[in-house]
Amino acid sequence: MKLLEEAIQEKGTVLPGNVLKVDAFLNHQIDPALMQKLGKEFAEHFAQEGITKIVTIESSGIAPAVFAGLALSVPVVFARKKKSVTLKDNLYSASVYSYTKQETSDISISKSFLTSEDTILIIDDFLANGQAALGLLEIAREANAAVAGIGIVIEKSFQQGRKLLQETGVEVYSLARIASLENETIQFVRED
């Protein structure tokens, strides 16, 4: 998606350790107009899949997921990373390792919001090692929910995430695919 690639080039910063900082429009400050276009793109791509819910993880996946949910007219459910007094029982849970934060979180979704009647679209902000999406796939399996696909805003194609997710047989649709962040230069995968 050219518009997203332009935003990454303009506002993204490459940090040591192959970390791409996009907090100017995605995971700290949010550009609602851009998020709306990303959500619409996900919705159009998966329009024929019978999606009943969008599922993401708090917090950076919420904005694109909400706009995809709006475009598809379906609810958005986000997995919480921390339990609260209102979310502690009757949960689907999985452990997820964050490449960026270098920590493992237990994510949870209430059984009230995900059932075997659902066909879900997983949306996430980044795909690096695939652990967040794999955790959401594990929760979907626990709920016996069908998974229509996985929508990724930014994929680091030089890491193993896509390969791991493709092995599950679920379609992975990424809006921007980064081939390299070497020498602090963002290079995108060019598909013919």
UniProtKB/TrEMBL annotation:
Cited function: Converts the preformed base xanthine, a product of nucleic acid breakdown, to xanthosine 5'-monophosphate (XMP), so it can be reused for RNA or DNA synthesis.
Record-listed E.C. numbers: 2.4.2.22
Membrane-spanning intervals of the chain: none
GO BP term, example: xanthine metabolic process
CDD domains associated with the record: PRTases_typeI (cd06223)
Organism field: Listeria aquatica
Keyword Ribonucleoprotein: no
Positions that bind 5-phospho-alpha-D-ribose 1-diphosphate: A128, N129, G130, Q131, A132
Pathway membership: Purine metabolism; XMP biosynthesis via salvage pathway; XMP from xanthine: step 1/1
Compartment(s) where it occurs, according to its Swiss-Prot or TrEMBL record: Cytoplasm
Name of protein: Xanthine phosphoribosyltransferase
Binding site for xanthine: L20, N27, K156
Catalyzed chemical reaction(s): XMP + diphosphate = xanthine + 5-phospho-alpha-D-ribose 1-diphosphate
Gene symbol of the encoding locus: xpt
